[in-house]
Automatic annotation (TrEMBL):
Protein name: IGF-like family receptor 1
UniProt-listed InterPro entries: DEATH-like_dom_sf, IGFLR1
Species name: Ursus maritimus
Keywords assigned: Cell membrane, Membrane, Receptor, Signal, Transmembrane, Transmembrane helix
Membrane topology reported for the UniProt record: Single-pass membrane protein
GO cellular component, as recorded: plasma membrane
The keyword Cell membrane is annotated on this UniProt entry: yes
């Protein structure tokens, strides 16, 4: 009977342990989301974690940063002080950015990196807002809704958007943004 008691104790202790990689905010009874590698509570509070391969997520970010710096320095400086609302005035550019940043979920609800959800986190928008914005698809683009909301701030600029896209490792979106120049 003693080995059965030890086995039961070990099983209970393992059940209470936080999943590998859990943050200090993850509760033991929260649903663990394997795609985001965090619990539902953290996902609601902090939004999706950084994308693998983004500047802040990996040591390899140094090489990605080197690749993005020429793009930022060469093609976007003249856009830096222009208002973010300029994207809304250029439907072709907005459409291309929407295709890149508002992807359809992958098979099995897979998570894409560097999407509008990640961009919203950069602008300090709550994760609940992103969930709501994505629920309105396909009638309304989450990216368009984000830009309309953020553009109300006088300090919102194309340069800030370019910086956020670079931090997310989205050179493709930076290329599209450079068409505004």
């Amino acid at each position: 009977m003693r080995p059965l008691c030890l086995l039961l104790t070990a099983a209970l202790l393992l059940a209470q342990a936080a999943p590998l990689g859990a943050s200090q905010h993850c509760g033991p009874l929260e649903y663990w989301n394997p795609d985001y590698r965090c619990c539902g509570s953290c996902l609601q509070r902090f939004g999706p974690p950084p994308c693998p391969g983004s500047l802040e997520a990996s040591e390899a970010g140094v090489s990605r940063k080197v690749a993005l710096v020429p793009l930022l320095g060469r093609e976007l400086p003249h856009l830096a002080s222009q208002p973010l609302s300029r994207v809304l005035d250029e439907p072709e550019v907005l459409e291309e950015l929407t295709v890149l940043l508002d992807p359809e979920p992958g098979p099995g609800g897979g998570v894409a990196c560097g999407t509008t959800r990640h961009l919203a986190v950069r602008y300090g928008v709550p994760a609940a807002w992103s969930t709501f914005a994505y629920s309105l698809r396909p009638s309304c683009s989450p990216l368009r809704a984000l830009i309309e909301m953020v553009a109300r701030e006088l300090s919102a600029s194309l340069g800030q958007l370019g910086t956020h896209l670079a931090q997310l490792g989205r050179a493709d979106a930076l290329q599209v943004l450079s068409k505004l120049g």
